[in-house]
Design a protein that fits this description.
434 Repressor (Amino-terminal Domain), 252 residues, 2 domains, eight-stranded mixed β-sheet
Length: 252
Amino acid sequence: MANDRLREAVLNAGLTPLSLAERVGVSPKTAERWITLNRVPYPRHRHAIAGLLKERESYLWPNAASPERVARVAESEVVHVYSRRSAVPYDLWRRLIEQSSERIGILVYAGLFLPELVPTLIRDLQERALAAVDVRLLLGNPESEAVAQRGAEEGIGDAIAGKVRNVMAFYNQLQDVPGVHARFHSTTLYNSIYRFDNEMLVNTHAYGFPAAHAPVFHLRRLSGGDLFDTYADSFDRVWSSAAPIWPPPVAG
């Protein structure tokens, strides 16, 4: 059976089995067997290929690593654990935003604290988007049952819906910026997710407590890990089921 994932990744990278072999330092026949016969490369070659093709090892070779190794790598993806959101350093937020070069994703119900914490957030997101960074904002639909339920669980009534409307006063300034997309979701939010390229802050949610009082995991994606990708996939699932907040631009 051929490794179609590897074949497609090689083609998407503008390479051939021959050029892949040259870049990795193996014989063309070896590289061809990786693709046509689904032979699994040595770990050092898997790491080099994944970096070259900008794909995850676990995607290209799902069964190559033992469960024990996957678990160890996942542990290494945890950079730091903060006991509560307020403990996340301001400088970390700034670095993650300013150094993003490919994508920024924010999944919250309201997340009103962020533009209050980072006064230049709207300008920063605009600059990142104009630099070809894909900016995706996922906010809770203020009319949804999920948002109302969260407010009830925290004992604050419809305050979260009000916060969503308040934070929109900030994000609406980005409505006409190319590369910025915003959607309302109506999902039960188990975690707030803030993604910046291959780093992520995951704010866990605890029943009866506001997100500000719950722990935050700082994650950094590793090629052979799956912890980061679990939350990245969760973000994508919510995005796919959410509805655009802003109307599509009118063609001139």
